[in-house]
Amino acid sequence: MINPALLWEYDLTTFNYEKSYKIVIERVLQRGNLNEWREMVSLYSKAQILEVVDWSAQLDERDKVFSKFFLNSEFLYAA
User: Fold this and answer.
1) Which is higher by pLDDT, 76 or 11?
2) How many CB atoms lie within 10 A of CB 41?
3) Which helix (H) or strand (E) holds 4?
4) Is residue 40 part of a domain?
5) pLDDT mean over 42-53
6) Do the domain assignments include residue 52?
7) Of 22, 5, 14, 24, which is closest to residue 56 (Cα–Cα)?
8) What is the pTM of this model?
9) Per-residue pLDDT, 79
């Protein structure tokens, strides 16, 4: 599960994870731990995640490069 603290300013009882995927993905990329990354990958497609990486004004270039690298790494998918 994605830590509710990452979305602290939203009412999670009515929060729509599908419609608000950009917010969720961006927060996980910025502040998420390995388990949250794994949850993100199970909730969203690789195409959606890469779309947010390219779209985000909050991620600097280093974070964007790392996100793309880590998304394709075996480490993310290892048990």
Assistant:
1) 11
2) 16
3) none
4) yes
5) 97
6) yes
7) 22
8) 0.91
9) 65
CA dihedral for 12, 59, 62, 48, sign (positive or negative): positive
Q: Do the domain assignments include residue 33?
A: yes
DSSP state of 56: -
Q: Per the structure, how many domains does the chain have?
A: 1
- Token pair of 72 as six digits: 């394709």
Q: How far is it, in rounded angstroms, from Cα 35 to Cα 1?
A: 8
Is residue 58 within 8 A of residue 26, CB to CB? The reply is yes
Joined together, the tokens standing for residue 44 give 């969203």
The boundaries of the domain holding residue 57 are: 20-77
- Is residue 14 situated within a structural domain? no
Q: Could you read off the pLDDT of 24-38 as tens digits, one per residue?
A: 999 999 999 999 999
CB 64 within 8 A of CB 54: yes
